[in-house]
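Throughout this chapter, every protein is written as a compact record of paired, labelled lines. An example of such a record is reproduced below:
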Amino acid sequence: MAWRLQYQAKKISTRELPIIENICGQNQMASVDSKLHLEEMLNSLPDKARFIIEQVVINGVPEEIVAQHLGISQQGVNKYKRKYLGILRKKLESNPQAVKS
């Protein structure tokens, strides 16, 4: 059981956190520009995807709770999260200057 929790934590840290850190920077979260850029990128997503990313990735709400709130399965939440984190990653890779400004 403990190894599974460690695996999940490692998976989150390698897949999800770098995207948010690239947008905001670890030490720049208070920066208005970074917050505006994060908001702009999230607003480019569909409503359901934006809600899932905000709740699960940014606020740390468990996927199961978000799934209950939306009336979908936990796997559905995970699928949305992976899909749209990939889209955000591609946007960052295609326009890295937007993050640095």
Remarks:
- The radius of gyration is 14 Å.
